UniProtKB/TrEMBL annotation:
Gene Ontology cellular component list: mitochondrial inner membrane
Phylogenetic lineage: Eukaryota, Metazoa, Chordata, Craniata, Vertebrata
Signal peptide limits: none
Biological source species: Pterocles gutturalis
Domain of life where this protein originates: Eukaryota
Example of a GO biological process term: protein insertion into mitochondrial inner membrane from matrix
Identification of the protein by name: MAIP1 protein
Single GO molecular function: ribosome binding
Length: 142
């Protein structure tokens, strides 16, 4: 899901995210993406093979005022991306660079992070669909 959503964000195909991402998050993303430089937008895309590490940041089970049961999982992703980013991105956060190949054919990649929160209702009879309720690409999507 992370790879698919990040690529669609990079391509500004927000209409294809209606079933995957909450309406509130989509509204916020629409505004942010319109202001994003092309190289930062390109850096949002994470190929499945370029995901280096994932970990859960927070897992919560909670009930709303109507007694419906929800599960929320915050996932953190580290991925390689070849977008043309400066060595320092705004906010003075260091972007790690990894160089593949020898000096004549070297290819520069940046190790970037993203946080996506997934939520699902577990009340009896609820649809078993996960929805992304938070998307963060630090220093890219701010």
């Amino acid at each position: 899901a992370f790879s698919v959503v990040s690529k669609l964000l990079s391509q500004r195909k927000l209409d294809l995210l209606d079933e995957l991402v909450s309406a509130e998050v989509l509204r916020a993303l629409k505004e942010k993406l319109s202001l994003l430089p092309d190289n930062h937008r390109d850096a949002l895309a994470a190929d499945v093979d370029a995901i280096m590490y994932t970990t859960e940041g927070d897992v919560r089970i909670y009930y709303d005022d109507d007694g419906r049961k929800f599960v929320s999982i915050l996932m953190r992703f580290w991925y390689l991306n070849g977008a043309n980013l400066p060595d320092e991105v705004p906010g003075e956060t260091k972007v790690f660079q990894i160089v593949f190949g020898d000096e004549s054919t070297k290819e520069k990649r940046h190790l970037l992070t993203a946080n996506y929160e997934f939520q699902r209702e577990f009340t009896e009879g609820a649809k078993p669909d996960w929805t992304i309720t938070r998307i963060e690409h630090p220093r890219l999507l701010e």
